[in-house]
Design goal:
Elements (H helix, E strand, L loop, with lengths): L1 H19 L7 E5 L5 E6 L7 E14 L4 E7 L3 E4 L2 E2 L8 H9 L1 H6 L1 E3 L4 E5 L3 E7 L2 E7 L23 E5 L6 E7 L13 E2 L1 E3 L5 E10 L3 H4 L6 E6 L4 E12 L9 E2 L6 E2 L11 E6 L2 H5 L12 E11 L10 E4 L3 E9 L11 E3 L3 E6 L1 E9 L12 E5 L10 E3 L4 E4 L11 E3 L8 E5 L2 E9 L10 E12 L4 E9 L2 E6 L11 H30 L1
Parallel strand pairs: 2-11, 14-25, 26-35, 29-31
Antiparallel strand pairs: 1-10, 2-9, 3-4, 3-8, 3-10, 5-6, 5-7, 12-13, 12-15, 15-21, 16-20, 16-23, 17-18, 17-21, 19-20, 22-34, 23-24, 23-25, 26-31, 27-30, 27-32, 28-29, 32-33, 33-34
Helix pairs in contact: 1-2
Length: 538
């Protein structure tokens, strides 16, 4: 009799606890009424996703309507073992099990080995009703295949359906999100960018810049149901972008901020980029096996209670394969880069990656530009192209900083790594046959072009100030970026004029100079002789 009373007392506590603490995740343990079959309604489902639920009978018992509790709880038909110990349907449930259930409703579910489902139900509607359940406690398990879907399976919930009334489970699904941004010079950053971080940027070829990947895990009790929680960033760079290295991996929250932010070491994550043979146009991943363990270290217990942000910053640069933008456009998939995020989405798999959801891809764009030049003699007409003239491009008006270039051998030059000491040139030569010396891979900005080697018989052209102006912004409707180009002297015809020269030797002009010189000398001689005679006469 004492055992029965204790069982009733614990069962009453379970019911009260369950009703007071309704967890909003789509998997449930529930009880049915002794007087009538129970009905459970699950609301908040996504009608576009066909979900499958399995229903397992965990306990049976006698329900006291007046007291609102069960007695004589026995193992149900849907359980084969508890805490690795076999159980038999119809066998009384030990008090220790009920005590565990009273302390932590989900803990007992994690220790259950489920057997045969009482029923399996499917729904493609926003509301699902499960009826015809006999007396007892049940686990409702979401078994929908969520691999690579931006969705999550259920965690365990305890609910009570008593007296033949409907028990409602309201699903409030939460999943992580991911964002990719690229760092631009603050003055050139797209509208709305923060501290230079935005969805688009422009850079010179071979100039190092940074990408930032940000995963956000919402503050929601659903996430507390996971024993561990895995994240995987899947990053894809276009062929014109080359990976360099990881700058930082950081986890923050309202508690983990400032000096408390978690700066992860390389041993705390796994990435595949460093070992890649070719780092241009790379597809690579960075995974963190258990974010929850890192966040909840030292008994912090904040995972699921605070918004968690995981941030990855890495260095990269545009390479010689980068697409050069030479005109404005409204649908430009130019040097676009993307990321998606895989995440634990099935708490029944303890977040170990057995099942991983996947977010939609997020894109960024990196632009780079070109200046075209043709050298002419006398006039900018076809046939007057002039080869052999040398030009230097400077980044300052004082012409102190030369821009290092790579000579492509075809009259085009690509901006080089400005720290390079070999394989680069600072003077461009107008190409034989067509007189061109085009410069590829320039950042937006102001440059100064000067003729530093002048062909014999010609005068140097005036210096040219070049400005490249650009605005760019994401076009959300098309997964593209809109670019507007402006500037001056980005397409130049440069003309050298002939030197001024004396008439040719033997011509009449020379004779006149000689005769003129002789007459002048003779007149001077006559004047001196006359002056001397006049003096002597005195």
């Amino acid at each position: 009799m004492k055992k029965t009373n204790k069982t009733r007392k614990i069962a009453t506590m379970i019911a009260a606890m369950a009703l007071a603490a309704t967890m909003a995740i789509p998997s449930a343990m529930m009880t049915a009424s002794a007087e009538d079959v129970a009905e459970v309604t699950i609301t908040g489902l996504d009608a576009s996703v066909a979900r499958t639920f399995e229903v397992y009978q965990v306990f049976t018992g006698k329900y006291d309507t007046d007291k609102g509790s069960f007695s004589e709880l026995k193992w149900g038909s849907g359980v084969t073992s508890y805490d690795e110990t076999d159980v038999t349907a119809g066998e009384l449930v030990a008090d220790s099990v009920l005590e565990n259930l009273g302390n932590d409703a989900r803990a007992i579910v994690g220790d259950l080995e489920l057997g045969t489902a009482t029923k399996t139900v499917q729904s493609s509607a926003a509301i699902l009703k499960i009826d015809g359940l006999a007396d007892g406690y049940y686990v409702i398990k979401d078994v929908t295949n969520m691999d690579d879907k931006d969705d999550a399976n259920s965690a365990w919930i305890v609910q009570v359906a008593a007296d033949g009334k409907t028990t409602n489970i309201a699903i409030k699904k939460e999943t992580p999100s991911v964002d990719k941004q690229v760092l631009d010079e603050t003055a050139d950053a797209e509208a709305g960018a923060t501290d230079g971080w935005g969805e688009s940027a422009d850079h010179a070829i071979n100039e190092t810049f940074q990408f930032k990947l940000t995963a956000t895990i919402p503050a929601n009790n659903n996430f507390a149901a996971y024993d561990s929680y895995k994240l995987v960033f899947n990053d894809t760079m276009s062929s014109g972008v080359t990976y360099e290295d990881i700058e930082s991996v950081t986890i923050t929250s309202s508690t983990l901020t400032g000096t408390k932010a978690l700066e992860l070491t390389a041993s705390q994550y796994t990435e595949t980029a460093t070992a890649a043979t070719s780092k241009a146009g790379l597809t690579w991943s960075l995974s963190i096996a258990d974010v929850k363990a890192l966040v909840n270290a030292d008994d912090a217990d904040i995972f699921g209670k605070e918004e968690i942000t995981v941030e990855v910053i890495y260095n990269a640069h545009l390479n010689e394969n980068a697409i050069i933008s030479t005109a404005s456009g409204n649908d430009l998939n130019v040097n676009n880069n993307k990321v998606d995020l895989q995440y634990s989405n099935n708490p029944d798999n303890t977040g170990t990656g057995t099942s991983l959801g996947k977010t939609p891809e997020d894109f960024v764009w990196v632009f780079t530009y070109e200046v075209d030049n043709t050298k002419y003699k006398i006039s900018a007409d076809s046939g007057n192209e002039l080869a052999g003239a040398g030009f230097t491009l400077y980044s300052d008006s004082a012409k102190q900083t030369e821009i290092k270039l790579i000579d492509n051998g075809d009259g085009t030059y690509t901006v080089a790594d400005q720290t390079a000491t070999t394989g680069v040139v600072t003077e461009m030569t107008s190409h034989t046959g067509d007189g061109i010396f085009n410069i590829k891979g320039l950042d937006a900005g102001t440059y100064y072009l000067s003729e530093t080697s002048v062909p014999d018989g010609y005068n140097a052209a005036d210096d040219i100030t070049i400005t490249i102006g650009a605005t760019h912004i994401e076009n959300n409707a098309k997964n593209a970026a809109n670019l507007t180009l402006s500037g001056t002297n980005v397409d130049n015809d440069i003309v050298d004029t002939k030197n001024s020269t004396l008439p040719s030797t033997g011509g009449m002009g020379t004779t006149l100079f000689v005769i003129g010189g002789g007459v002048t000398a003779a007149a001077a001689g006559i004047y001196l002789v006359s002056k001397k005679r006049a003096k002597d006469a005195e």
